[in-house]
Write a structure and sequence with these properties.
With 145 residues, the protein is an alpha+beta fold. It contains 4 helices and 6 strands. Strands 1, 2, 3, 4, 5 and 6 form a 6-stranded antiparallel beta sheet that branches. A hairpin with a 2-residue loop joins β3 (35-41) and β4 (44-49). α2 (61-71) crosses α3 and α3 packs antiparallel against α4 (126-142). The longest helix has 23 residues, at 98-120.
Length: 145
């Protein structure tokens, strides 16, 4: 089953999860037996380390920007590696659709580009940075509908 792993450094890796025991593979990729499920798009699930923030795992800007763009508003912090799978209408895990794969990869590239630009031209404030990154992510998602 096709899925993605999004790492805090904005790397996106294609995964081929087993259909019979996908949950164990997801736990391994996330790095925890405690995995939370975030539904920010009706056809996708973000599998998130259940204690990532408490453990001080690095913020995952790519997954946060993607989830926020899908939801249409800024969300809470996401931390650590995150696996993205598809979701059936009944809520079961399934392969991630190609258009959602393209959303994730486009947002990841945008995050890498924006972070690089910010090294040379830092945003005026944290609020300005959030607004800028979310506007870019929303553009990426809307242009690939």
């Amino acid at each position: 089953m096709h899925a993605l792993r999004i790492d805090p450094d904005a790397t996106v890796t294609d995964l081929n999860l087993p259909t019979t025991d996908a949950q164990s593979a997801i736990q391994e990729h996330v790095g925890s037996d405690s995995v939370d499920h975030g539904v920010y798009h009706r056809r996708a699930v973000l599998h998130i380390h259940g204690n990532g923030q408490d453990l001080g795992l690095p913020q995952n800007l790519t997954a946060w920007a993607l989830a926020s763009a899908w939801r249409g508003m800024p969300l809470y912090r996401l931390a650590g590696p995150i696996v993205v799978t598809g979701r059936t209408e009944s809520g079961d895990v399934t392969a991630l659709d190609d258009d959602l794969v393209q959303h994730a990869k486009a947002v990841a590239q945008t995050v890498r580009d924006t972070m690089s630009e910010w090294r040379a031209r830092p945003p005026a404030s944290n609020e300005a940075a959030v607004k800028e990154l979310l506007a870019y992510a929303a553009r990426d998602v809307a242009s690939r509908q």
